[in-house]
Amino acid sequence: MQLSSIFLAVVAAVGAFAQAPDPSINTPTGVQECLPSQLTFSGTSPPFIITVVPAGQAGAAPLVTVGTTSANAITWNANLPAGSYTLVIRDSLGRTNPSGTFTVNPGDATCLSASASAAPATSAAAATSAAPATSAAPATSAAPATSAAAATTPAGSSAAAVASSVKSSASVISTSAAAAATSHNAAPTLQPMGIAGLVGLAGVAALL
Fold it and tell me: Helix or strand or coil: residue 22?
């Protein structure tokens, strides 16, 4: 009878130990703003990371990371405003477990204002960008110069050509007149007015 009781007690103890979470963290009490509190926990795979999350939200992003340690306790200066929270422990294997909900009581909140982050300053230079410089209008190209020699024909050359043409015509007329005068079978004698005209042309040709 006595042996049976001892055996049952041992079995119960082993079962309770087997069912204990690993790691596990205890729920703190008497936590006050900006005052140190001792947090205790246990586990078989250190180091442990201790964080604080909103009450009952073990999977939420941490509000505060208390620290990392391989011991079974850590001190936390409660740098959160009064309210309800939950502790979370994570071991080196990535296993996590939460504590029960605990309360941070009002107290000296100077550490809260000191840890508040200032709003980032805006840069005036980044806010406004300089206006792009305008490029000058492209220079206009000057009109190509015209060649005076190519544009105009020398007057002397033109006069010489005319004179040469008149001389040639007079020579032809003189030759024709002489041939007509000496030929017995030629056409009728030229009229006086025609001969005078030929003589005039020959005179002009001689002058040129």
Answer: coil
Residue 46: strand, helix, or coil? coil
One-character DSSP codes across 115-180: HPPPPPPPPHHHHS-PPPPPPPPPPPPPPPPPPHHHHS--HHHHHHHHHHHHHHHHHHHHHHHHHH
Identity of the residue numbered 145 = A
3-state class (DSSP) for residue 28: coil
> Burial, 85: exposed, middle or buried (Cβ in 10 Å; 0-12, 13-18, 19+)?
buried
Instruction: Give tens-digit pLDDT for 124-183.
Output: 333 444 444 444 444 444 444 444 333 344 444 444 553 455 455 445 444 544 444 444
Cβ-contact 31, 102 below 8 angstroms: yes
Beta-bridged to residue 101, according to DSSP, are 86
How do strand 64-69 and strand 24-25 relate by DSSP bridges?
Answer: unpaired
Cβ distance 135 to 127 under 8 Å?
no
Query: Are the CB atoms for 37 and 76 separated by under 8 Å?
Result: yes
Q: Which residues contact 91 (CB under 8 A, 6 or more apart)?
A: 22, 23, 43, 44, 45, 46, 47, 48
pTM of the model as a whole = 0.49
